Amino acid sequence: MPTPPRTRSRRGTGRSDVTATGSSGRTRVAVRAGAAAGWLSRITGRGAGATISGRVINRIAPDALAELGRGLRITLVSATNGKTTTTRLLTAAVRTRATPVATNHTGANLTSGLAPVLAAARRPGLAVLEVDERVLPRVVDPLAAELLVLGNLSRDQLDRFGEVHAVAAAWRRVAEAHPDLHVVANASDPHVVHAAGPARTTWVRLGLRWRADAATCPVCAALLDWGTRFACPACGFAEPDTPHRLDGDTLVLDGERVPLRLGLPGRWNLDNAALAVAAAVLHHGVDPAVAAAAVGSVDTVAGRYMTVPLADGRRARVLLAKNPAGWSEVLEWARAEGRPAVIAVNARVADGTDPSWLWDVPYELRRGLPTVAAGDRSLDVAVRLRYAEVDHTVEPDPRRAALALPGDEPVLVCSYTQFAALYHRFGTSDA
Amino acid sequence: MRDAPLRIGLVYPELLGTYGDRGNALVLAQRCRWRGIPAEIVEVAAGDPVPATLDCYLLGGGEDDPQHLAAAGLRASRASLVRAHEEGAVVFAVCAGFQLLGHSYVAADGTVLDGIGLVDARTTAGPTRLIGEVVVEPDAPLPLLTGFENHGGRTTLGPGVRPLGRVRAGGGNGDGSGTDGARADRLVATYLHGPVLPRNPALADHLLAEVLGPLPPLDSVWEERLRAERLAAGSRTGLARWWQQRRLARG
Hints:
Strand order of the largest sheet of chain B: 2-1-3-4-12-11
Distance between the termini of chain A: 33 Å
Low-confidence stretches of chain A: 1-22
Shape of chain A: globular
Largest interface: A-B, 27 and 34 residues
CATH class of chain B: Alpha Beta
Radius of gyration of chain A: 21 Å
CATH topology of the largest domain in chain A: UDP-N-acetylmuramoyl-L-alanine:D-glutamate ligase
Shape of chain B: globular
Oligomer: heterodimer
CATH superfamily of chain B: Class I glutamine amidotransferase (GATase) domain
CATH class of the largest domain in chain A: Alpha Beta
Number of helices of chain A: 15
Number of strands of chain A: 17
Order of helices and strands of chain B: EHEEHHEHEEEEEEEEHHH
Structural class of chain A: alpha/beta
Distance between the termini of chain B: 63 Å
Mean pLDDT of chain A: 88
Strand content of chain A: 15-25%
Largest sheet of chain B: 6 strands, mixed
Helix content of chain B: 25-40%
Mean pLDDT of chain B: 92
Strand content of chain B: 25-35%
Number of domains of chain A: 2
CATH superfamily of the largest domain in chain A: Mur-like, catalytic domain
């Protein structure tokens, strides 16, 4: 399988002669000040600390990212859902062929999260970095990224981030500015196709199950036709043809069938794995079977799918769901597995303060399965479940809620801030 | 008791459904069924004409491009919608749906999007988005309403319609009148989503009663708990906004 040529130069500077310890004092100060600002923001309860620390770093040393990126061949992974997992899977696949590979494995995906990882990276080397979808356009240039891996775009925290179109438009400006930049992208998401179109893009057909944010054409705003693939009857914008596709649990790359046997649950993780293996094989030159084996060995990702102890000695399996597309996938999986579940929803700043999306999610899938409504917004969940005619109880504390469920390993589906608290308390550095 | 099921129209859910608006239709349908009144949700797909034969018409919130498409569809179906309303159907519109029921929406770049003029209201795009919990005090017999708003519109009502209520916390119509929404016979329009009917069962029953007549009471313990929690949260938001403005005014 051909590996695309790597054509982008890195501002003409030699890269292998720069080491982490060689970064300038200004950059080191900026990274530390950024971390301190983030810590202050967190302990004073003003926010998650990520945005402010990125601003501090940029203010003190505007070239910090460019300097920190030197000597590294950088892949950036972004999406609304699945970026942490795809990054982890791609890193596992790339590590079979190249070392060292630096990565932000905890999901710290803003400038402040990238900076310390880059500062500590050994070089020359590779970096596979998850980047927040709104931060991506700002870091592609300073980091001189050689590959973007783009998954999906759907509604997420509308109260903070606004509409999906704006994110797609910002991505597209990056692609327009870099027509030679290699992108591995999901061919089935109209927003992603519109965004990545102008770049040198390798498309992978994954299928799109959450279509509520893709009713209209991103190019001309007409209503899209959704047959087996999307097409705009007005302007001709359509799902691109590609020899790479996910067929059930098999990835097809140029006709070669690569079975994916995952340690992670759910249909959505097949999407993540397909994109990761495609990028590893088609860009980084990893052997397909080797990439698939490496991806299959991953069974927790930054706390996702970890288990946490309950007061009665059992353990609960933790899943993260942040938006309606993610919730829909998780509920389908829990239904197929017949799993008792806690539905835990917070609506703090980092979750988005508006949980109206609860009514976009098919909680009817919980009918007949033991279910508890939990989280700061347990009453919103309880009312949603009542109208879905799902028998349930209400207990705001997620781990206490799980005690009421039968079974060896109840499922605890959490929004972001509950998940972060559980990961902070019970996660291991490798999980 | 009626034999034919109550037909609840969800108008263009792909275009006007950004903020969980489907929930409002589900709440109306279930509150009928739980009272033994058959009800069905009829989705009017984008591109299709809106039929004149439904009992309720629900229009939700939408993003800019979808709102333009929805406006075109509604203008084409204006006669059906107006006739159905005159003949006894209920119309309930939220956010973008509210704006489209008015005469016009003037976007930030000056382009004018024509509505259907069922409500005597005009909207312009404001300089900022109004985002957060809202509390609205409607005329009796409706109790305090709670919702969440996220919109850039500033809507001014004409003499032909009265507001849904006075804003106790949040922005609402945002035109300086201190009001939210619009209310007429068998018509309620508002900027409250969340969605608004699960949070305000009395408003849901008010809409149903306008079609069905007086309804037997229904156990709404969990809805009322949610409503009380959200009213408290909305009041806190209101206090925080007031405090911020006071500090700004004093420099």
